[in-house]
Specification:
Belongs to the ATPase gamma chain family. It is a peripheral membrane protein. Produces ATP from ADP in the presence of a proton gradient across the membrane. The gamma chain is believed to be important in regulating ATPase activity and the flow of protons through the CF(0) complex. InterPro entries: ATP_synth_F1_ATPase_gsu (IPR035968), ATP_synth_F1_gsu (IPR000131), ATP_synth_F1_gsu_CS (IPR023632). The structure is a single chain. The protein has about 270 residues and is α/β, with parallel strands linked by helices. It has one domain (about 1-225): ATP synthase, F1 complex, gamma subunit (Pyruvate Kinase, Chain: A, domain 1, 3-Layer(aba) Sandwich), CATH 3.40.1380. Helices cover about 60% and strands about 15% of the residues. The chain has helices at about 1-45, 75-90, 100-110, 125-140, 180, 190-265, and strands at about 60-65, 95-100, 115-120, 150-160, 160-170. The radius of gyration is 28 Å and the shape is elongated.
């Protein structure tokens, strides 16, 4: 109980920092993604990251789990969602996994469909490390090795609630526009080519960074909740054992008293 109580306190302290980071980042990430989708619709086929006309044949699923356990259903929910995508949604396609986090890799490697795994990115989660990961995924799509890349991670809502999220990383999803919006003539500064070269990669890197930060905050929330329940269960078990011990002790004392009284009566 003392160990789980200490782990709960540690997770609560880490959660505050992770929660502040993701809540500060989400509005920027969402707005940038919305801008990216609108830009993708306007650019048409000028970006290598847009959807291909021949459709998807090779799919890369990127499950984001933790390196450590003792966090309830945090990891198992992600694995369950990944298996569902593989066996139901993309069952007729060639599916591979790029696992981020030790727990997901330990389970999914049994499928022998692991393309690559990454476990050290959480040791020092920063934008530079995430940029390298995002650039690698973007290159896998741009080179034609994969036709679709999907992120699966826990989105942070609050300390007690994490939402399993499936998000298409590539190709960029174009938004549906009505006639009035589609007739808008966009002005590109400095140029359309520069925007394709600079803004789209930056937006995709931010999307990955947000997903990883979401997962970290969700992990601390899930672990804090799990350790809180474990502490309560241990406290309840201790109370039950204490009651059982007292009953057994009382029965033993009563038995000894009866023996003494019986012996005294026999002597008299």
């Amino acid at each position: 109980m003392q160990i789980t109580g200490a782990m709960k306190m540690v997770s609560a302290a880490k959660l505050k920092k992770a929660q502040d980071a993701i809540l500060a980042m989400k509005p920027y990430a969402y707005k940038l993604k919305q801008l990216l989708e609108q830009l993708s619709s306007a650019l048409g086929n000028e970006s290598v990251y847009n959807e291909r006309s021949e459709g998807a044949k090779n799919v890369l699923i990127v499950p984001i789990t933790s390196n450590r356990g003792l966090c309830g259903a945090f990891n198992s929910n992600i694995i369950k969602k990944v298996v569902e995508l593989e066996t139901e949604v993309y069952k007729n396609l060639n599916v591979r996994f790029y696992t981020i986090g030790k727990k997901g890799n330990d389970v999914l490697k049994k499928t022998e469909k692991i393309y690559k795994h990454e476990t050290h990115i959480f040791d020092n989660l920063n934008f530079a490390a995430v940029s390298e990961l995002a650039s690698e995924l973007m290159e896998l799509y741009a080179s034609g090795q994969f036709d679709k890349i999907v992120l699966v991670y826990n989105s942070f809502k609050n300390a007690a609630t994490q939402i399993v999220t499936e998000e298409t990383f590539l190709p960029i999803q174009s938004v549906e526009t009505d006639k009035e919006q589609s007739s808008v003539d966009y002005l590109y500064e400095p140029s359309k080519e520069e925007i394709v070269k600079e803004l789209i990669p930056r937006s995709l890197k931010i999307q990955i960074f947000k997903a990883l930060r979401d997962s970290v905050a969700s992990e601390h929330g899930a672990r804090m909740t799990a350790m809180h329940k474990a502490t309560d269960n241990a406290n309840e078990l201790r109370s039950q054992l204490k009651l059982t011990y007292n009953k057994a002790r009382q029965a033993a004392i009563t038995g000894e008293i009866l023996e003494i009284v019986g012996g005294a009566e026999a002597l008299s």
